Amino acid sequence: MDAFSAPETITFAVYLIVVIGIGVWVYNRTRTLEDFVLGGRSLNAPTAALSAQASDMSGWLLLGLPGAVYAAGVGASWIAVGLAVGTYLNWKFVAPRLRTYTQQANNSLSLSAYFEERFEDRTGALRLVSAAVMLIFFAVYVSSSLVGGSLLFEEVFDASGDVAITVAALVIVVYAFLGGFLAVSLTDAVQGMLMWLALLIVPVVGILALGGWAAFTGGVESQSASLLSLGQDVSWADGQWTAEGGLATMTVVSSLAWGLGYFGQPHILARFMGIRSAAHVPLARRIGVFWVVTTLVGAVLVGLAGIALVPDLANNETVFLALVQQQLNPWVAGILLAAVLAAIMSTADSQLVVASTAITEDFYHAQISKDAPESRLVWVGRLSVVGVALVAYALALQGGAVLDIVAHAWAGFGAAFGPVVVLSLYWPRMSAAGAMGGMLAGAGTVIVWEAFATFGTDVYSMVPGVAAAAITAVALSLLGTPPAKSWEGAMDEPEVAEL
User: Considering only CA atoms, which of 251, 258, 249, 235 is closest in space to residue 415?
Assistant: First the structure.
């Protein structure tokens, strides 16, 4: 790639000026901790939907998924199917109730605070442990964004790996430090539209460059007929996807299991908590699901187009970048490459804000200084952004593939929090002991499963993690004492107007 191409440099600079400008604008409106961590619960439906999904997909959508399809064909797209289904179920069954009940639970500003109120845990242990689990997996997750950012800067500007990671970290930290939740959400909505346009334009350009749909499928099949088969088995090892013959049942199950992770992702759940009311959820759900389905299809098509147009790439995850620079005018390419930076920033800034919420609200405010003024809490939140980013930066310097890192963090969050969140919203008998046990069982199973390389199986750690969490949570809740407060009425489906 040519270093420091003028069109690409200029479009990147303009993009960064715009998003930092939004951060500065909202910076002066952020006066309380609720403003910083939930934007005063003021998100409208389009902003909530686009920001939730943009922060969800991250650089994985433009780097990891196209790279997996490029290496192994459409057999790798079972993950996309699981994510599309998980997105719908999360908006349908979790979003309206979580928005209603976090406010009922003493206006909880964090997931950990909600757990403490919902399960009436006066020891503070549940809040502290859940916040600690959050910080561990967020450090890993943010590191994946920095690795994705470094990949972008390496390819576009020919920067070295460590320099690229440093630049990516500085860009993300400056914006997250300034913005807080509202600026992050507004900017993520803009970034989401840019990502959507990129995954609409690039596949169309690739198909036309090959001479139409028939030539497109022919070009892929010329490499291997099995690349267009959903029955082609794929595996992930040593940072690469490979094809291995007939599809195994557990491969499909493991791929679809990615969808289970949605119920436990704090940076997505924060959007549900920050939407104006449960009445705005149906419209947000329709927008969010449409965005997810169309972008996932686009990402799969990018990977397939790359098989025919840019064969023999050294790094599978650069297929989107290679197609853009090969097929498009440099000015258009600059705008679409900025979409990769948008994808990376939209996830990293959201995760940094939620991680800083855990430090500020669940550690500092709840345990150290309960009477701290709002202005101090906001600054503790901003400094926490820097602290978490430094840990993630150190992890990112160790390297790794984007999809590999995301897979670990996604499974960790999904197993630790997913079953606990769903049961807390739909089962009044759920207790603090069940929540604590489920959370630790889910997180512990994922960590052990990954440490022992899935025990020689192809099963994604999400599957045993969610199972262990759900079984443990139910068993301990039945054995223990239920909450004293009756949640029967609170658990009724909230009144939701169709907007």
Answer: 258
